[in-house]
Specification:
The protein is mostly helical. Helices cover 76% and strands 0% of the residues. It is globular, with a radius of gyration of 20 Å.
Length: 338
């Protein structure tokens, strides 16, 4: 469904953002202890204005489901936005938030912290540090005689990603198979179950900072998709803008992975859907990717925690859903952006 009328596109984006609170209310009510929308609204009213109300409902909403949904919204919006930014920056429809090895670096940091039995904030901090370090390492490797090209950045990212994946394998090999290895393996498959308000307070500011930076620079992504000489002729500092977008995208990716493990397909699938609907203009693709990514992850996490008695790892669900949908998109578009 491609919207050709440019006047309708902003309304479509606005409507997609309006769907987020509706999705939140619906997701808050789904689970073993089901809640109606009226009960949810009353619980929020009681929490804000000090009413008595249903104590059990408030406990389920504010202590169990709301932190997960907030993380799911931020993770989905962040990964989709980072994916859209990388695809626009590198003019490559297969670029993902892990193009520069950030996900692998953050995974290594988290696995290392788990092996040493650090607490949740420690795991989060070390994952974030290694994620950003992997981005820095990729950029340094890509520089030749003081310059770095897009091709060198992508190739360096592949090398750094492989390096940190090998380091993760070493950590798993050295971990205690009865205690540490299961927790590392489960975390690497992605889960929102360990989230707390404290971990959200630590990680969300990094995601929001990255989102704000990409939002502010979204129109410049259109210029970066031109060849370097054309972009420079328009008076834009290519190196600085490229660094800002890479830094913001990497900050988002590292922060998301530090809180909930590796989650695939969101940064690849959602931007493609956005381009299929609104075309290739990043001024509209980035906002729509943010809203659709948030809704997608909130729905996926709700299904992961409520579909069976045992929670399903999120990366399994995103792959099961993402692969067929992506194949369908490829067959419809022929791999060509609108």
């Amino acid at each position: 469904m491609f919207i050709e009328n440019k006047k309708i596109r902003p309304l479509f984006i606005f409507a997609s953002f309006l769907l987020i609170p509706i999705t939140v209310i619906l997701c808050l009510g789904i689970g073993r202890y089901s809640l109606s929308p009226l009960q949810i609204v009353r619980s929020f009213s009681d929490a804000l204005f000090g009413g008595g109300g249903d104590v059990m409902a408030r406990t389920v909403i504010f202590k169990v489901r709301l932190p997960r949904i907030l993380l799911a919204l931020a993770a989905g919006a962040g990964l989709a936005c980072a994916g859209a930014a990388f695809q626009g920056l590198f003019s490559n429809p297969l670029a993902t938030p892990d193009t520069l090895g950030v996900a692998s670096g953050a995974s290594f940091g988290a696995a290392l912290a788990m092996m040493f039995h650090w607490n949740l904030i420690g795991i989060q901090a070390l994952a974030l540090c290694f994620g950003l370090f992997s981005c820095f390492l990729t950029y340094r490797i890509s520089r030749i005689k003081g310059k770095s090209s897009v091709v060198m950045i992508i190739l360096s990212g592949m090398v750094v990603s492989s390096l940190f994946q090998a380091l993760v394998s070493i950590v798993k090999y050295m971990a205690d198979p009865e205690d540490e290895l299961p927790s590392i393996t489960y975390w690497l498959m992605g889960s929102m179950s360990a989230v707390t308000y404290k971990s959200l307070a630590f990680g969300l500011p990094f995601i929001f900072a990255g989102l704000a930076a990409i939002w502010a620079l979204k129109w410049r992504l259109n210029i970066l998709s031109l060849n370097e000489d054309e972009a420079k002729s328009m008076g834009m500092n290519i190196t600085l803008i490229r660094l800002l977008i890479i830094g913001a995208s990497s900050l988002i990716t590292a922060s998301v992975i530090s809180m909930c493990g590796q989650i695939g397909w969101v940064g690849l699938l959602i931007p493609h859907i956005s381009r299929m609907v609104l075309g290739s203009n990043n001024k509209t693709v980035v906002p729509l990717s943010i809203s659709l990514g948030a809704i997608f992850m909130a729905v996926i996490d709700t299904f992961a925690r409520s579909a069976s008695s045992a929670e399903i790892p999120i990366s399994i669900l995103t792959a099961i859903i993402g692969a067929p949908v992506f194949i369908s998109l490829l067959r419809k578009t022929g791999g060509v952006w609108a």
